[in-house]
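ugh finaly. both done.
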Amino acid sequence: MRDWRKVNDNLVKRGFILLDFSFLDRWDEELALTNKPKASVKGPKFKYPNALFYLAAFLNTLIGFRQVEGVLQGLSKLRKFRVPDYTTIFRRVRRLKLKLNASKLKDGFIVAIDSSGIKVTNRGEWLRKVGKKKRRGWIKMHVAVDVRKKEIACSKSY
């Protein structure tokens, strides 16, 4: 007999994310630390602290950079701060030196990766054939699966 209350609680916990926005209270201090290596270098200083881009990097594992900008704009309404555009977010996230926790990887794991296009709808097939509608009804999916545990490790769709 399956305990559906426990199953439901476990599914809800999968979506639970604990985010600490205390870096917003220390924006100027974080920004000073971020700009410290640039003190002797010519050129403009950073306008945003690295902590903001660590948050953006995390959010980007779930959604795209333009959507990350939208999430940050929404967050900025709760706690007032300047929001960078998606290009700045993309460039700064790429510069971060992100590290994996090696203790989590001590046993190692095998990942199988696949990507595929999924046809969303058949609606308008005749219009595409005639040439009046150029857009395709496809979603591109990328999925990484932990082979041993048989669990989805990561997925992204476009």
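ok and the 2nd:
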Amino acid sequence: MAVPQLPASHLPLGTPPPAPPARPRVVAVGTALASVGVLLFFGGALAIYAQVRSATLAARGTWLPEGAVLPLQQPNVILLALLMGSVTIQWAVDAIKRNDRPQAYLALAITEIFGFATLNMAAYLYSVMKLDASSGAMAVMTYAITGAHVIALVAAMIFVALMAFRALGGQFTGRQHDGMSAAAMLWHVQVVAFAFIWYTIYITK
């Protein structure tokens, strides 16, 4: 049998106030569902890419169009920048959990810097790839998959920026940090997606 709760007016003097009720984790749950969708999209796209590549190699013995170049240095830098962004966004989550706002703001700013650096390197990579979009399925699929990742990265950066503004407004504390954790989740997901892109497209070319 449940013990009835005394109203606040009947509690003994000196009794600490009850903890505020936890906020619904709507943002975290929504981000988790979106993250699953992102991983399924890139998993399916890369599976199709690998299947078409295998069929093309079996039929023609070659996959890259004539004169095409897929450099490895720029994708390596992109992957490194994204991984460093994962470290800094997790630093921001840890700082919020400790109610250390200056460190959280610094970590969020550095994360966004890594994001802009990645976009800059992706633009440079496109300029040196020497891959004509009209040269066949390989070019079309490469641009489609890598372009989709750029969109995912921009979405993650916008999400991080929104959560940073909420943190500046004092909405996150050591007890309530679901939004910041959700932003970190989305960032990690797009990093994982690029890791698979890096291996499938740039390493096994």
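summary for the 2nd one i guess: The chain has a mean pLDDT of 86.
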